[in-house]
Amino acid sequence: MGAAAFVHERPVDVFLIETPEIFAVAAPELPEDQLIRARAERLIRRASAAIIAEEVELVEICSEAPVRYASLFEAIQCAANGDERARKLITADVQTDTGERTIKAGNITEIELTTDEDGNIWQYGQEMDDVYVNALRYAADGWQMRERSEIEARNGTRIKHHNRSGRLNDDYFVAFSCVADNMTTKELQETGFFTDTMSVVIQVTHSNDGVLTTQSAFVAGVKHPEGPRHDIKAVVGVAERFGVDLSGKTSAQILDNPLLIPKELMPNGVLDLVRMYDEAAGGTFFGQDKSIEDYQEYAAFCKRREANFKPKVERIVNELIAEAPTITSPEMATERLGKISAKYMVEMAVQDKTINPDVFGGGAAARIEVARWHVAHGNYEQAAQLTKEAVRVERSSSCPNGKSGVRTEKSFDDVSESGESDTSEGDSGDCEFVSKECPECGAKDVKTVVKKISTTAKRISGSCGCSVTASNG
Question: Which whole-number Å values give the CA distances from 351 to 3, 83, 99, in the listed order?
Fold first, then answer.
């Protein structure tokens, strides 16, 4: 992650600029966009035509420090041979995964990228073109996700072009990634979308003193779980303030219509867009029905929270590199990242109550809630056992892609050592299981029922008669 600040040195109230004399422009409206789209199409065809070898001689991948790492898989192999730059790439990937896996709304992240003499964009030895190609080759399952991956490749090509031309010194490149609106709720969940928040990612890329930076803000598309979506309307409202009409467009079309916004209209970077989004959504905070806080202070909180993740990130990186001999393909590398990250993030959620346990699925969330209860009462052995069980049944995902590894049906991992399922979970997220000990009265082998009583709270009851209410996040 880059060290640049989320905001400019002197915060400015952008809303003092009611009628700017200059406006933004939708990138596809520029005359050069036709050429840009043609270049992007070549990149997309490269992914479609790629022939992946069934076996790879790992010694050839890392016999010498490579100029580039085509995938996380190659970076893991090279890091295992002591390549520090490869380790930095893995760390960046893990940081992205842990943040997107646990904080679905109410978060801001920032990464720094580098460019070579040809204008190609890189992050720790991985060219961004390879990121888009890998998404198309390995992660775009289903035509809806394929469509989105192709648009992201186009936007990447647009960023490269406008950075080469110098335009990103003066303008922000802004993309709005809303939840797909051409999929059912079940399809969204199977693809890896967290439908409780229906989150929008607002991405802002620009160049400052030769450093290319991308800020991402994660805002909710619904005020409450299962509530009506306001994301499209809010995004249209934001664009309208800059003189761009996105009305009537689908979520995919909005993603394919990024804006180039003069920096003087966004003196606080992505924070200004979040605040505009909240106003357009009817007075939310990061898209949710929460009290409005100071945006500058909240951005600082996001950075502190990210710093608190670092010890877990380091452990995930170490574990991935240690598994290098058994990781034999790009798909396996991504799968192992997801599994290891989920394990450590469940542990993090037990300790950090700002993490909504529902991101891990109903069965894991219930166990996390009870584990928190045990921690509060000093019953660390019971908390550890419940944390282990939560890891076993968790169903979290990072960036939605169609091959997220989200389990939608009961798997062998959901079955206890006795051979029978110890979990009963309905579509509502209610859950039943057996706790080894009640933290209140000490009763053993207590049937525990976790029942959702509102969009933000659950009731945890034991067969022993004890009961407590827990809030999410």
Answer: 26, 33, 16
